[in-house]
Specification:
With about 475 residues, this protein is mainly beta. The chain folds into three domains: about 170 residues, no CATH class; about 140 residues, no CATH class; about 70 residues, no CATH class. It is built from three helices and 25 strands. The longest helix is centred in the middle third of the chain and has 14 residues.
């Protein structure tokens, strides 16, 4: 592991928390080194699939129905206030990516930690271990392609495998938990999860075992990469009331350094955060202004127009940030998940409970580019070009059936088709306007369409034909 590029120290005192960070080169941030492996050359633009100026997560709190950190569609303003002093950060930092494929040996190591015997079986795009009879036993499934997303369930949905010869009814003393019993202690849950986390390469992860799901306690592990905390790349291990691991999910493939990018300061990230959360005019928020829609054939203008003042002024909500630290957050880059340099803001809960985290991409905006598969207009909006270029959000495959998810309007119909070769499957989503519609509500909805392929997807990449970008799996 490379020496951490940022060292953070928490100093308690006064009215809040003070975080100090020192760059590894000793300049306290601002000046940048050479791009990783690039001999000082400028890194390529970082193509984020989503806008970097919109917080990917938002905590709870007022105004009612609007998450703190998210813009108020009615024109409210969110102001993020820092309790204490913002830290400095490094001059630049690397993107981390999971590359390659998961080997059978890596799956075997994880399966052994989960108490599963047997050899990993290759099934389409996944490795599987266990539950090869009636579906009642434990099952581990791992995606073969990086980042090696894995899921584990101790109890299946079938009957049992404990059948004596000649018995008319199969029975077993081991059945799925019914939610009864009390969750184990946090220390017991961590002890049970430790072998699994070690097999997944998470020896040094930051652990949180406060979450309880019924009778199971969940140990959530966020990896620490070269000394940097992460957000959005968690592994969760569920421990039942008997102390056994009953479920879990995470990523098995390790992360590798990518290109190095200049990064902005915490103060600049906070300024952008407040800028994206401010909406001062009526109708300028999410979804614009709602107006009465005339019945078909009745094209009279409504009596009240958008922008009509009602005397009510937009509200302002103040959100307190207790801590800021430089780290990495999960973002999609050109259709693939990656950990991107980010400022992680810990936000105080309005209800007095556990706080939440706002992750803000820290890459200098000059090095950010719009991903090829990013829509030119918001979901449900109208573009200037003729025809429809619809972004495919994700896909799932089951044998020869390929299901794609995308955003579409309520007044159109959609059909999906695919063109296949040995390495890729290019999917096209065609939009047809419904005839006779003179007035249509501008509302988007998430849609799914299924295409029957000539052969199972296997290791082939799914490509959005409209944009040429690779589509991530669901």
């Amino acid at each position: 592991m490379v020496v951490a590029s940022v060292a953070a120290v928490l100093l308690a005192g006064g009215g809040g928390a003070y975080w100090a960070a020192t760059a590894a080169n000793g300049d306290g941030g601002g000046s940048g080194g050479a791009a990783a492996g690039g001999g000082g050359s400028a890194p390529p633009p970082l193509a984020l699939d989503e806008r970097a100026d919109v917080p990917p997560a938002a905590p709870d709190g007022p105004p009612q129905g609007i998450a703190v950190g998210e813009p108020d569609p009615h024109g409210g303003k969110i102001v993020h206030r820092v309790s204490g002093t913002l830290p400095q950060g490094p001059g630049r930092a690397e993107v981390r990516r999971a590359v390659g494929t998961v080997t059978a040996a890596e799956v075997t190591r994880l399966a052994k930690a989960l108490g599963l015997a047997g050899t990993p079986r290759a099934e389409g795009t996944s490795w599987t271990v266990g539950s090869d009879k009636d579906g009642s036993g434990p099952l581990l499934r791992v995606d073969r392609q990086a980042p090696g997303t894995w899921t584990f369930a101790r109890y299946g949905s079938g009957g049992t495998d404990d059948c004596r010869r000649g018995a008319s009814v199969c029975s077993s003393g081991r059945t799925a938990p019914d939610g009864s019993g009390s969750p184990v202690s946090e220390s017991a849950a961590r002890a049970a999860a430790t072998p699994v986390l070690k097999a997944a390469g998470l020896d040094d992860a930051a652990l949180d075992s406060r979450q309880v799901m019924g009778s199971a306690r969940v140990v959530n592990a966020d990896p620490v990469v070269d000394g940097l905390p992460t957000y959005g790349w968690s592994t969760g291990v569920q421990v039942g009331p008997d102390g056994d691991v009953v479920g879990g999910s995470g990523h098995l493939k390790g992360l590798e350094k990518g290109d190095s990018y200049p990064v902005i300061s915490a103060g600049e990230a906070l300024k952008q955060l407040n800028g994206s959360s401010s909406r001062t005019g009526r109708g300028s928020g999410v979804g614009g202004c709602a107006e009465p829609v005339p019945l078909e054939g009745d094209l009279k203008s409504p009596g009240v127009r958008c922008g009509t003042r009602t005397g009510a002024e937009p509200s302002t909500t103040t959100v307190t940030i207790d801590k800021a630290v430089f780290g990495l957050s999960m973002q999609h880059v050109a259709g693939e998940p990656a950990l991107v340099p980010s400022w992680l803001f810990s936000v105080r809960s309005a209800a007095g409970g556990a706080g939440t985290t706002l992750a803000r991409v820290a890459v200098d905006p000059a090095y950010l580019a719009k991903a090829k598969d990013a829509p030119a207009t918001p979901p449900g909006g109208t573009g200037g070009a003729s025809g429809s270029s619809r972004q495919i959000q994700s896909y799932s495959a089951d044998g020869q059936n390929l299901s794609v998810t995308f955003w579409g309007g309520v007044c159109s119909t959609y059909a999906a088709s695919a063109a296949e070769d040995g390495k890729t499957v290019r999917v096209t989503v065609a939009e047809s306007k419904q005839e006779g519609k003179k007035v249509c509500v501008m509302m988007a909805q998430e849609l799914n369409r299924t295409v029957t392929l000539d052969a199972p997807l296997g290791d082939r990449a799914v490509i959005d034909a409209a944009s040429g970008a690779r589509v991530p799996s669901a």
